[in-house]
Amino acid sequence: METSTEGAARTGTDDSAEAAVPAGRTEAVAPAAAEAAGAAEAVAAVAGGRAAGVAAAVPPASLSPSRASDFMQCPLLYRFRVIDKLPEKPSEAATRGTLVHAVLERLFDAPATERTAPRAKSLIPGQWDRLRETKPEVVELFADDPEGERLARWLAEAERLVERWFTLEDPTRLEPAERELFVEARLDSGLKLRGIIDRVDVAPTGEVRIVDYKTGKAPRPEYAEGALFQMKFYALVVWRLKRVVPRRLQLVYLGSGDVLTYDPVIADLERVERKLLALWEAIRQATETGDWRPRPTKLCGWCDHQAVCPEFGGTPPPYPLPVREAGLSSAGGPARGAAAG
């Protein structure tokens, strides 16, 4: 699908898929209206600081679905994660999502006739061992569980999620073209979009289906558009790379046993591109001014950074990027250089 097809172990985000609100593969999403409002408010929040000519710094060069969602949710959260790179504790929900994704990916290594629920569940212990080796920080999740009772319940829930998948899809009839596919595309504007797609299916007729696994429950109908933001992001990348609009976007919710599908058209992808360009401009302005405003929501309760957030009486760390006088960067586009997006 893309010249760079390296896989990546899931850590709970989509630069690791993967999702949108609290860190990790939690399934809370903002409604489409809230997303649009978040983008608009983010632009307004940083415009004042830029006009004041405070300072200029190096803007980001890329966006992933998770980082775009971070900025829409709270510009200060984006700064903490992308610029300050503050550490975050692993969560049971996010780590379980990583584990389940690894199992579903590995299952397709087996011949079609051997892709059974018992085989899938048998992969869980080995993938858990591998996850602990590659991400040792997850071990602390069960440091206070010497008898292993909580770990046993956690692994049993992972088994239930894996088993439920077999009621939603039949892996014996699937031959994915790609699994855990890293994709990257540069838009005409210079913005680079990147992310990891859980699964890509290609029909004999050439039609493309993008599939994403969610270990939470399906959102209510009014939240569905927000849930599809990540998928439309991926569809845009595929379209820009291959000039092919995916025939179907499919979200498989293992927590509730639901499947949400959407068939995009070019107009959808063009709207997503305009939205991402607006977000990129807002991020560029915030980077130049150092003005990152918190945007309080109910999701603040999940945030690991309350101690350094002004909304909770904290003080953010000193702005770490090299700065320069405002006006030295081009007003019409990003300055040279990049912070990780």
Automatic annotation (TrEMBL):
Residues 1-24 are annotated as: Disordered. It comes from the Bacteria. Transmembrane segments: none annotated. Keywords: ATP-binding, DNA damage, DNA repair, Exonuclease, Helicase, Hydrolase, Nuclease, Nucleotide-binding. Residues 62-310 form the PD-(D/E)XK endonuclease-like domain. InterPro entries: PDDEXK-like_dom_sf (IPR011604), PDDEXK_AddAB-type (IPR038726), Restrct_endonuc-II-like (IPR011335). One of its GO terms (molecular function) is exonuclease activity. Gene3D superfamilies: 3.90.320.10. This is RecB family exonuclease. It comes from Streptomyces dengpaensis.
